[in-house]
Amino acid sequence: MTAAGPPREYLDWSENGVSTSALWRSANGAPAPKRVVPVDDTITADAAYRLASQGVALLWTGDFQNARQILTALEHRTRPRPDKTQRTTAELFYRYRQNRSHRARILSLLLVPLEIGNIIGLRRAPDVVAATVDAYGSIAEASVVSLHEVLGTIGAHQWRTKGIRVAALNASIYPHYGTFFPVRSEYVDLVATAPLAAPRVAFDIGTGTGVLAAVLATRGVPRVIATDLEPRAVASARETVSRLGISGRIEVQLTDLFPEGRADLIVCNPPWIPATAHSLLDAAVYDPGSRMLKGFLAGVIDHLEPNGEVWLVLSDFAELVGLRTRADLMTVIDTAGLRVIGALEAAAVHSRATDTSDPLHAVRQSEVTSLWRLRTK
After folding, report:
1. Which positions fall inside the Methyltransferase small domain (predicted)?
2. Shortest CA distance to 310 belongs to which of 376, 368, 226, 253?
3. Minimal CA–CA distance to 211: which of 178, 243, 173, 245?
4. Most buried residue, 29, 170, 172, 297, by CB count within 10 Å?
Protein backbone atom coordinates (compact mmCIF):
# COMPACT_ATOMS: atom_id res chain seq x y z
CA MET A 1 0.00 0.00 0.00
CA THR A 2 1.35 3.44 -0.89
CA ALA A 3 1.45 5.98 1.92
CA ALA A 4 -0.94 8.89 1.45
CA GLY A 5 0.71 12.18 0.56
CA PRO A 6 -0.17 15.56 2.06
CA PRO A 7 -3.73 16.76 1.38
CA ARG A 8 -4.17 18.77 -1.82
CA GLU A 9 -5.06 22.40 -1.14
CA TYR A 10 -6.65 24.80 -3.60
CA LEU A 11 -6.56 28.59 -3.65
CA ASP A 12 -9.71 30.47 -4.63
CA TRP A 13 -9.95 34.05 -5.84
CA SER A 14 -12.09 36.30 -7.98
CA GLU A 15 -10.73 38.08 -11.06
CA ASN A 16 -12.85 40.42 -13.16
CA GLY A 17 -15.92 38.97 -11.50
CA VAL A 18 -14.97 35.39 -12.36
CA SER A 19 -14.28 32.87 -9.60
CA THR A 20 -11.05 30.96 -10.18
CA SER A 21 -9.10 28.29 -8.32
CA ALA A 22 -5.77 26.50 -8.70
CA LEU A 23 -3.75 23.91 -6.83
CA TRP A 24 -1.39 25.25 -4.18
CA ARG A 25 2.14 23.88 -4.40
CA SER A 26 5.08 24.31 -2.06
CA ALA A 27 8.21 22.20 -2.26
CA ASN A 28 9.15 23.50 1.19
CA GLY A 29 5.93 22.44 2.90
CA ALA A 30 4.58 25.99 3.36
CA PRO A 31 0.85 26.13 4.20
CA ALA A 32 -1.54 27.58 1.67
CA PRO A 33 -2.43 31.24 2.27
CA LYS A 34 -5.98 31.87 3.47
CA ARG A 35 -6.74 34.85 1.25
CA VAL A 36 -5.58 35.63 -2.29
CA VAL A 37 -6.05 38.76 -4.37
CA PRO A 38 -4.87 39.19 -7.98
CA VAL A 39 -2.50 42.13 -8.54
CA ASP A 40 -0.60 43.50 -11.52
CA ASP A 41 2.05 46.03 -12.49
CA THR A 42 -0.01 48.92 -11.12
CA ILE A 43 0.47 47.95 -7.47
CA THR A 44 3.09 49.86 -5.51
CA ALA A 45 5.69 48.23 -3.28
CA ASP A 46 4.19 49.94 -0.21
CA ALA A 47 0.72 48.62 -1.02
CA ALA A 48 2.11 45.14 -1.63
CA TYR A 49 3.92 45.22 1.70
CA ARG A 50 0.80 46.39 3.56
CA LEU A 51 -1.26 43.54 2.13
CA ALA A 52 1.41 40.91 2.78
CA SER A 53 1.80 42.18 6.35
CA GLN A 54 -1.91 41.46 6.82
CA GLY A 55 -1.40 37.89 5.57
CA VAL A 56 -2.94 38.53 2.15
CA ALA A 57 -1.28 36.65 -0.71
CA LEU A 58 -0.73 38.56 -3.96
CA LEU A 59 -1.26 36.57 -7.13
CA TRP A 60 0.73 38.33 -9.84
CA THR A 61 -0.98 38.69 -13.22
CA GLY A 62 1.32 41.24 -14.85
CA ASP A 63 4.88 41.22 -16.20
CA PHE A 64 7.22 38.67 -14.57
CA GLN A 65 10.18 41.05 -14.36
CA ASN A 66 8.01 43.61 -12.58
CA ALA A 67 7.04 40.91 -10.09
CA ARG A 68 10.74 40.38 -9.38
CA GLN A 69 11.11 44.11 -8.74
CA ILE A 70 8.25 44.04 -6.25
CA LEU A 71 9.84 41.04 -4.53
CA THR A 72 13.14 42.93 -4.28
CA ALA A 73 11.28 45.86 -2.75
CA LEU A 74 9.68 43.54 -0.21
CA GLU A 75 13.11 42.15 0.62
CA HIS A 76 14.36 45.67 1.36
CA ARG A 77 11.38 46.33 3.62
CA THR A 78 11.98 43.17 5.65
CA ARG A 79 15.66 43.75 6.30
CA PRO A 80 16.46 44.18 10.00
CA ARG A 81 16.94 47.76 11.08
CA PRO A 82 20.20 48.83 12.73
CA ASP A 83 20.04 48.02 16.42
CA LYS A 84 22.50 49.76 18.72
CA THR A 85 21.07 48.17 21.86
CA GLN A 86 23.53 46.04 23.79
CA ARG A 87 22.14 42.53 23.66
CA THR A 88 23.25 39.11 24.80
CA THR A 89 24.13 36.52 22.19
CA ALA A 90 20.94 34.64 23.03
CA GLU A 91 18.88 37.80 22.46
CA LEU A 92 20.65 38.46 19.15
CA PHE A 93 19.87 34.93 17.98
CA TYR A 94 16.22 35.26 19.03
CA ARG A 95 15.87 38.53 17.09
CA TYR A 96 17.64 36.97 14.12
CA ARG A 97 15.19 34.06 14.07
CA GLN A 98 12.23 36.42 14.47
CA ASN A 99 13.34 38.48 11.51
CA ARG A 100 14.01 35.39 9.39
CA SER A 101 10.52 34.09 10.13
CA HIS A 102 8.87 37.45 9.35
CA ARG A 103 10.91 37.86 6.19
CA ALA A 104 10.10 34.35 4.95
CA ARG A 105 6.37 34.87 5.61
CA ILE A 106 6.21 38.19 3.74
CA LEU A 107 8.26 37.03 0.75
CA SER A 108 6.26 33.82 0.41
CA LEU A 109 3.06 35.77 -0.23
CA LEU A 110 3.92 37.00 -3.72
CA LEU A 111 2.56 34.24 -5.96
CA VAL A 112 2.82 33.33 -9.63
CA PRO A 113 0.86 30.84 -11.77
CA LEU A 114 2.63 27.62 -12.73
CA GLU A 115 0.76 26.10 -15.62
CA ILE A 116 0.65 22.63 -17.14
CA GLY A 117 4.07 21.80 -18.48
CA ASN A 118 5.87 23.80 -15.75
CA ILE A 119 5.42 27.12 -17.51
CA ILE A 120 4.95 30.45 -15.74
CA GLY A 121 2.14 32.07 -17.68
CA LEU A 122 3.32 35.66 -17.41
CA ARG A 123 4.92 38.11 -19.83
CA ARG A 124 8.73 37.92 -19.96
CA ALA A 125 8.79 34.87 -17.69
CA PRO A 126 11.98 32.76 -17.91
CA ASP A 127 12.12 29.08 -18.75
CA VAL A 128 11.76 27.37 -15.37
CA VAL A 129 10.86 23.89 -16.61
CA ALA A 130 14.01 22.07 -15.51
CA ALA A 131 14.26 23.89 -12.17
CA THR A 132 10.62 23.39 -11.20
CA VAL A 133 10.57 19.74 -12.28
CA ASP A 134 13.39 19.20 -9.78
CA ALA A 135 11.28 20.73 -7.01
CA TYR A 136 7.65 19.91 -7.88
CA GLY A 137 7.78 17.21 -10.52
CA SER A 138 5.94 17.59 -13.81
CA ILE A 139 2.95 19.94 -13.50
CA ALA A 140 -0.21 18.40 -14.92
CA GLU A 141 -2.69 20.78 -13.30
CA ALA A 142 -2.88 24.57 -13.13
CA SER A 143 -1.07 25.58 -9.96
CA VAL A 144 0.05 28.56 -7.91
CA VAL A 145 3.48 28.83 -6.27
CA SER A 146 5.49 31.37 -4.32
CA LEU A 147 7.73 33.48 -6.57
CA HIS A 148 10.41 33.51 -3.88
CA GLU A 149 10.34 29.71 -3.79
CA VAL A 150 10.49 29.49 -7.60
CA LEU A 151 13.58 31.70 -7.64
CA GLY A 152 15.05 29.36 -5.04
CA THR A 153 14.46 26.39 -7.31
CA ILE A 154 16.31 28.22 -10.10
CA GLY A 155 19.29 28.83 -7.83
CA ALA A 156 19.27 25.23 -6.63
CA HIS A 157 19.09 23.97 -10.21
CA GLN A 158 22.10 26.09 -11.12
CA TRP A 159 24.05 24.55 -8.23
CA ARG A 160 22.90 21.10 -9.31
CA THR A 161 23.94 21.74 -12.91
CA LYS A 162 27.33 23.18 -11.99
CA GLY A 163 28.03 20.81 -9.11
CA ILE A 164 29.75 21.45 -5.79
CA ARG A 165 33.43 20.60 -5.59
CA VAL A 166 34.32 18.45 -2.58
CA ALA A 167 38.06 18.51 -1.97
CA ALA A 168 37.96 15.41 0.23
CA LEU A 169 36.56 13.43 -2.72
CA ASN A 170 38.55 15.23 -5.41
CA ALA A 171 35.25 15.34 -7.26
CA SER A 172 32.03 17.30 -7.58
CA ILE A 173 28.61 16.25 -6.36
CA TYR A 174 25.25 17.36 -7.74
CA PRO A 175 22.67 17.74 -4.94
CA HIS A 176 18.96 17.36 -5.57
CA TYR A 177 16.58 20.14 -4.64
CA GLY A 178 15.65 19.97 -0.96
CA THR A 179 18.86 18.36 0.29
CA PHE A 180 21.51 20.11 2.35
CA PHE A 181 24.23 21.41 0.05
CA PRO A 182 27.71 20.61 1.45
CA VAL A 183 29.11 24.08 0.75
CA ARG A 184 30.84 24.03 4.15
CA SER A 185 33.95 21.89 4.13
CA GLU A 186 34.73 21.65 7.85
CA TYR A 187 32.59 18.65 8.71
CA VAL A 188 33.54 16.77 5.54
CA ASP A 189 37.25 17.33 6.15
CA LEU A 190 36.94 16.05 9.72
CA VAL A 191 35.47 12.76 8.51
CA ALA A 192 38.16 12.58 5.83
CA THR A 193 41.01 12.90 8.35
CA ALA A 194 39.81 11.20 11.56
CA PRO A 195 41.76 8.05 12.56
CA LEU A 196 40.15 5.06 10.85
CA ALA A 197 40.67 1.55 12.27
CA ALA A 198 39.76 -0.51 9.17
CA PRO A 199 36.02 -1.03 9.85
CA ARG A 200 34.29 -3.75 7.85
CA VAL A 201 30.90 -2.01 7.89
CA ALA A 202 30.05 1.64 8.50
CA PHE A 203 26.70 3.39 8.87
CA ASP A 204 26.16 7.01 7.79
CA ILE A 205 23.01 8.18 9.58
CA GLY A 206 21.15 11.11 8.01
CA THR A 207 23.26 10.95 4.87
CA GLY A 208 21.76 13.89 2.94
CA THR A 209 23.67 14.06 -0.35
CA GLY A 210 25.69 10.99 0.63
CA VAL A 211 28.92 12.96 0.84
CA LEU A 212 30.11 11.45 4.13
CA ALA A 213 29.26 7.92 3.01
CA ALA A 214 31.29 8.57 -0.13
CA VAL A 215 34.24 9.84 1.93
CA LEU A 216 34.17 6.67 4.05
CA ALA A 217 34.06 4.46 0.96
CA THR A 218 36.93 6.29 -0.71
CA ARG A 219 38.92 5.88 2.51
CA GLY A 220 38.65 2.13 2.10
CA VAL A 221 35.59 1.07 4.09
CA PRO A 222 34.36 -1.95 2.09
CA ARG A 223 30.65 -1.56 2.96
CA VAL A 224 28.76 1.57 3.92
CA ILE A 225 25.02 1.75 4.61
CA ALA A 226 23.68 5.30 4.37
CA THR A 227 20.22 6.23 5.66
CA ASP A 228 17.87 9.20 5.47
CA LEU A 229 14.15 9.67 6.12
CA GLU A 230 13.73 12.21 3.30
CA PRO A 231 13.09 10.65 -0.15
CA ARG A 232 14.77 13.56 -1.94
CA ALA A 233 17.93 13.00 0.10
CA VAL A 234 17.91 9.27 -0.66
CA ALA A 235 17.61 9.99 -4.39
CA SER A 236 20.41 12.54 -4.16
CA ALA A 237 22.71 10.18 -2.24
CA ARG A 238 22.11 7.37 -4.70
CA GLU A 239 23.01 9.64 -7.57
CA THR A 240 26.15 10.79 -5.74
CA VAL A 241 27.51 7.29 -5.24
CA SER A 242 26.54 6.32 -8.79
CA ARG A 243 28.37 9.29 -10.30
CA LEU A 244 31.44 8.50 -8.21
CA GLY A 245 31.40 4.87 -9.33
CA ILE A 246 31.15 3.45 -5.80
CA SER A 247 27.59 2.08 -5.83
CA GLY A 248 28.95 -1.40 -5.15
CA ARG A 249 30.27 -0.27 -1.78
CA ILE A 250 27.43 1.95 -0.58
CA GLU A 251 23.78 1.07 0.00
CA VAL A 252 21.37 3.96 0.54
CA GLN A 253 18.21 3.22 2.52
CA LEU A 254 15.06 5.26 3.18
CA THR A 255 14.62 4.90 6.93
CA ASP A 256 14.54 6.93 10.13
CA LEU A 257 17.97 6.68 11.77
CA PHE A 258 19.35 3.12 11.82
CA PRO A 259 19.27 0.28 9.32
CA GLU A 260 19.10 -3.31 10.50
CA GLY A 261 22.26 -4.94 11.79
CA ARG A 262 25.43 -3.60 13.37
CA ALA A 263 28.48 -1.69 12.22
CA ASP A 264 32.05 -1.17 13.37
CA LEU A 265 31.77 2.57 12.71
CA ILE A 266 28.63 4.70 12.91
CA VAL A 267 28.80 8.30 11.71
CA CYS A 268 26.18 10.98 12.21
CA ASN A 269 26.15 14.68 11.35
CA PRO A 270 22.77 15.72 12.79
CA PRO A 271 21.21 19.18 12.42
CA TRP A 272 23.20 21.43 14.69
CA ILE A 273 20.63 23.84 16.12
CA PRO A 274 17.93 22.64 18.58
CA ALA A 275 15.21 25.03 17.42
CA THR A 276 12.04 24.88 15.33
CA ALA A 277 12.42 24.46 11.59
CA HIS A 278 10.29 26.92 9.60
CA SER A 279 10.42 24.88 6.37
CA LEU A 280 11.46 21.49 5.04
CA LEU A 281 14.76 23.02 3.95
CA ASP A 282 15.38 24.22 7.51
CA ALA A 283 15.17 20.63 8.74
CA ALA A 284 18.76 20.03 7.66
CA VAL A 285 19.92 22.72 10.10
CA TYR A 286 17.29 22.84 12.86
CA ASP A 287 16.51 19.88 15.12
CA PRO A 288 13.58 20.76 17.44
CA GLY A 289 14.27 19.49 20.94
CA SER A 290 17.43 17.81 19.63
CA ARG A 291 15.21 14.96 18.45
CA MET A 292 17.68 13.48 15.99
CA LEU A 293 20.73 13.99 18.19
CA LYS A 294 19.09 12.36 21.21
CA GLY A 295 17.47 9.61 19.15
CA PHE A 296 20.77 8.78 17.49
CA LEU A 297 22.73 8.63 20.74
CA ALA A 298 19.98 6.69 22.55
CA GLY A 299 19.90 3.96 19.90
CA VAL A 300 23.43 3.78 18.62
CA ILE A 301 24.73 1.16 21.07
CA ASP A 302 22.13 -1.32 19.83
CA HIS A 303 23.69 -1.06 16.36
CA LEU A 304 27.38 -0.88 17.30
CA GLU A 305 29.71 -3.86 17.13
CA PRO A 306 31.81 -4.60 20.24
CA ASN A 307 34.82 -2.26 20.27
CA GLY A 308 33.16 -0.24 17.50
CA GLU A 309 33.38 3.53 17.29
CA VAL A 310 30.84 6.34 16.90
CA TRP A 311 31.67 9.60 15.17
CA LEU A 312 29.34 12.44 16.12
CA VAL A 313 29.94 15.56 14.03
CA LEU A 314 28.53 18.67 15.67
CA SER A 315 29.07 22.41 15.69
CA ASP A 316 29.14 24.39 18.94
CA PHE A 317 26.87 27.07 17.41
CA ALA A 318 24.00 26.01 19.69
CA GLU A 319 26.26 26.44 22.71
CA LEU A 320 27.41 29.88 21.58
CA VAL A 321 23.82 31.16 21.28
CA GLY A 322 22.66 29.59 24.54
CA LEU A 323 20.46 26.81 23.18
CA ARG A 324 22.56 24.01 24.63
CA THR A 325 25.55 23.77 26.96
CA ARG A 326 28.57 21.55 26.61
CA ALA A 327 27.48 19.90 29.87
CA ASP A 328 24.09 19.10 28.27
CA LEU A 329 25.84 17.37 25.37
CA MET A 330 28.14 15.38 27.65
CA THR A 331 25.13 14.31 29.75
CA VAL A 332 23.30 12.98 26.68
CA ILE A 333 26.42 11.09 25.63
CA ASP A 334 26.91 9.65 29.11
CA THR A 335 23.24 8.68 29.49
CA ALA A 336 23.50 6.77 26.19
CA GLY A 337 26.24 4.60 27.71
CA LEU A 338 29.02 6.19 25.69
CA ARG A 339 32.34 7.82 26.55
CA VAL A 340 34.49 10.30 24.66
CA ILE A 341 37.84 8.86 23.54
CA GLY A 342 38.91 11.85 21.51
CA ALA A 343 37.82 14.83 19.44
CA LEU A 344 38.96 16.60 16.30
CA GLU A 345 38.12 20.27 15.82
CA ALA A 346 37.87 22.62 12.85
CA ALA A 347 37.45 26.38 12.95
CA ALA A 348 34.84 28.03 10.74
CA VAL A 349 36.11 28.80 7.25
CA HIS A 350 32.81 29.40 5.45
CA SER A 351 31.94 32.79 3.96
CA ARG A 352 29.41 33.78 6.62
CA ALA A 353 32.17 33.73 9.24
CA THR A 354 33.69 36.78 7.53
CA ASP A 355 30.45 38.67 6.85
CA THR A 356 30.62 41.59 9.27
CA SER A 357 27.09 42.72 8.30
CA ASP A 358 25.64 39.55 9.83
CA PRO A 359 24.24 40.30 13.33
CA LEU A 360 25.64 36.92 14.39
CA HIS A 361 29.05 37.55 12.86
CA ALA A 362 30.92 37.20 16.17
CA VAL A 363 29.23 33.85 16.81
CA ARG A 364 29.95 32.50 13.35
CA GLN A 365 33.57 33.64 13.59
CA SER A 366 33.99 31.78 16.90
CA GLU A 367 32.16 28.62 15.80
CA VAL A 368 34.03 25.32 16.04
CA THR A 369 32.93 22.05 14.46
CA SER A 370 33.94 18.91 16.32
CA LEU A 371 34.09 15.24 15.46
CA TRP A 372 33.51 13.45 18.75
CA ARG A 373 34.94 9.93 18.85
CA LEU A 374 32.77 7.79 21.11
CA ARG A 375 32.85 4.23 22.40
CA THR A 376 30.79 2.26 24.86
CA LYS A 377 31.74 2.55 28.52
Report:
1. 198-318
2. 376
3. 173
4. 297
Q: Are 258 and 214 in contact (CB under 8 A)?
A: no
According to CATH, where is 3.40.50.150 located in the chain?
164-376
Tell which residue, 186, 132, 153, 111, has the closest CA to residue 345.
186
pTM of the model: 0.90
List the CATH code of the domain at 164-376. Answer: 3.40.50.150
Residue 261 · residue 194 · CB < 8 Å: no
Walking along the chain (377 residues) 10 residues at a time, the average pLDDT comes out as 63 90 93 95 97 97 98 94 81 88 94 97 96 95 96 93 95 92 90 95 97 97 97 96 96 97 97 80 82 96 97 94 94 97 90 72 88 97
Beta strands (DSSP E) in 91-142 are: 110-115, 119-120
